[in-house]
Amino acid sequence: MTIVITAFERSPDGGKGLARDTRVRWALEEAELPYDVRLVSFQAMKEPAHLALHPFGQIPTFEDGDLALFETGAIVLHIAEHHGGLLPKDGNARARAIAWMFAAVNTIEPPILELVTAKILEADKPWTKDRLPLVMDRIRERLNQLSVRMGESAWLDGAFSAGDLMMVSVLLRLRPSGLLDEYPNLSTYVARGEARPAYKRAFAAQLAVNAPLP
Fold first, then answer.
1. Contact between residue 115 and residue 177 where contact means Cβ atoms under 8 Å apart
2. Structural domain boundaries of the chain?
3. Backbone φ/ψ region at 179: left (φ over 0), alpha (ψ -120 to 50), beta
């Protein structure tokens, strides 16, 4: 059976690759796995059929035969564990790659999402002006640590892995803020991820869904 994932019918980012289905598309492209995409509206995401797949009414979801998964990290890890190219064969290197996957979503992404919330959802709140510098400082602290750890390495731990896929996907959210440009090695790292053919295919597929209506 063909893998089926869900994605926004019209993505809030307009097809810039920031919606989380892009991460799953990228993993599937790296693994060279065929897949179909079921587009869902914001209304459909709150209906019983979708909630049966994702209890929190979000995207993406992943279906493969009788297996249904939600949460991007879990989906990418499942793809990586069952198909070549996204996790090293060496056991220790494999464990480190998985650790970087968790670091991307648990350590690096939370303050970045705070910035998104402050700038978009709370832009009209009286505390936002004072809060923004604090949030940006928290992001810089994490970027400083990551930048020092990476140095001039091409990838996080040797060859490209699912850890890099998740980390690049998270860091991409910073591009509009300009914060990423403060760290040349991280900016280059993200560009390196975007240059991968599998990422380009995933991005193009997500963009095509969100092409301007005629």
1. yes
2. 3-85+198-208, 91-196
3. alpha
What's the pTM?
0.93
Structure confidence at residue 213 (pLDDT): 58
What is the SS3 string spanning 137-201? HHHHHHHHHHHHHHCCCCCCCCCCCHHHHHHHHHHHHHHHHCHHHHCHHHHHHHHHHHCCHHHHH
The domain over range 91-196 is classified in CATH as 1.20.1050.10: yes
Of 209, 113, 195, the closest CA to residue 155 belongs to 195
| CA–CA dist 112, 152 (Å, integer) | 23
- How many CB atoms sit inside 10 A of residue 40's CB? 23
* CATH top-level class of 3-85+198-208: alpha beta
* Average model confidence (pLDDT) across the chain: 92
